[in-house]
Amino acid sequence: MTLGMVNLNTGEQNSLQYHPNCEELLYLLSEECDCRLGDDVFPLKVGMMIRIQRSVKCSAINIVWQPVTILVCYSAVDRQTVFCEDA
């Protein structure tokens, strides 16, 4: 398992990506954001968590005027990330 933190400023989003060797959990610590999973978008608020299955393209988008903080947990120590060009 690997843990990390993501901070997104207003209007920022992380690169569209997927992880072929692990699942991912996102837990929203502050504010609100949209989480893109494949072709779907899920709104997240503080305290909400979303599970992203292996190899599903995903990104998070800050939709508010304050910085967003997300706790990220991966199910593998050697997390692999593939960045997509169609973000």
Give me the secondary-structure topology:
Layout: E1 2-8, E2 17-18, E3 24-28, E4 32-37, E5 40-45, E6 49-52, E7 58-62, E8 68-74, E9 82-83
Antiparallel strand pairs: 1-8, 2-9, 3-6, 3-8, 4-5, 4-7
Describe the structure.
The protein has a single domain (2-83), classed as Jelly Rolls. It is an all-beta fold. The model has no long low-confidence stretch (mean pLDDT 95). The strands form three sheets. Strands 1-8-3-6 form a four-stranded antiparallel beta sheet, with no helix packed on it. Helices cover 0% and strands 51% of the residues.
Q: What is this structure, in a nutshell?
A:
The chain has strands at 2-8, 17-18, 24-28, 32-37, 40-45, 49-52, 58-62, 68-74, 82-83. With 87 residues, it is mainly beta.
Q: What key phrases describe this protein's structure?
A:
87 residues, mainly beta, Jelly Rolls, 3-stranded antiparallel beta sheet, 9 strands
Strand order of the biggest β-sheet: 1-8-3-6
Share in β-strands = over 45%
Secondary-structure element string: EEEEEEEEE
Q: What kind of sheet is the major sheet?
A: 4 strands, antiparallel
CATH topology: Jelly Rolls
**Helicity range:** under 10%
Give the domain tally: 1
Give the integer mean of the pLDDT values.
95
Number of strands: 9
Runs in which pLDDT lies below 50 for 5 or more consecutive residues are none
Using the CA coordinates, give the radius of gyration: 12 Å
Number of helices: 0
CATH superfamily label: Jelly Rolls
Q: Determine the oligomeric state from the structure.
A: single chain
The level 1 CATH classification is Mainly Beta
Globally, the shape reads globular
SSE class: mainly beta
- Judging by the overall fold, what is the CATH architecture? Sandwich
